[in-house]
């Protein structure tokens, strides 16, 4: 992103990425979306949807975009791979249960790779 950047506003950049991603994602769930009765959904569903779409997705995307302008691409990609590991730890600590052992092993391998990458020179 550093090579192609012309100083765009990160929020605006993220908005346009989402706008052009929607046409690719909506067709996969179009049948379910048409049959869904949106007015019957409880407020908790709308709150969860707003939280997931705005807070977690947008914030994570903005952090990764910010990092990609300042760090080498390999490190940004590595930290992007670490995001699911944070979710695994958070879910476990919140009492929602821990992931299966093979998933935890994969998260540990990812974390070990990041440690190696952090030790290596850029």
How would you summarize what this structure contains?
With 122 residues, the chain is mainly alpha-helical. The chain is built from four helices and no strands.
Describe the overall structure.
This protein is mostly helical and about 120 residues long. It is built from 4 helices and no strands. The protein has helices spanning about 10-35, 45-70, 75-95, 100-120. Helix 2 (about 45-70) packs antiparallel against helix 3 (about 75-95) and helix 3 (about 75-95) packs antiparallel against helix 4. The radius of gyration is 18 Å and the shape is flat. The model has no long low-confidence stretch (mean pLDDT about 85).
Set down the secondary structure blueprint.
Blueprint (H helix, E strand, L loop, with lengths): L9 H26 L7 H26 L4 H21 L7 H19 L3
> What would the average pLDDT be, to the nearest integer?
84
Q: How many distinct helices?
A: 4
* Low-confidence spans: none
Structural class label: mainly alpha
The largest pleated sheet is described as: none
N-end to C-end Cα span: 17 Å
User: What percentage of amino acids are in beta strands?
Assistant: under 5%
**H/E series:** HHHH
Q: Which outline best applies? A: flat
**Count of individual beta strands:** 0
- The helix content, as a percent range, equals over 70%
Radius of gyration: 18 Å
What are its keywords?
4 helices, mainly alpha, 122 residues
């Amino acid at each position: 992103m550093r090579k192609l950047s012309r100083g765009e506003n990160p929020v605006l950049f993220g908005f346009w990425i989402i706008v052009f991603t929607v046409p690719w994602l909506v067709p996969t769930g179009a049948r379910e979306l048409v049959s869904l009765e949106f007015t019957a959904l409880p407020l908790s569903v709308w709150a969860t949807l707003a939280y997931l779409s705005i807070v977690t997705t947008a914030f994570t995307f903005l952090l990764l975009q910010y990092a990609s302008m300042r760090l080498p691409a390999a490190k940004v990609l590595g930290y992007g791979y670490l995001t699911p590991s944070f979710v695994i730890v958070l879910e476990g600590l919140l009492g929602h249960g821990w992931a299966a052992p093979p998933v935890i092993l994969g998260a540990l391998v990812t974390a070990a790779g990041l440690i190696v990458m952090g030790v290596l020179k850029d």
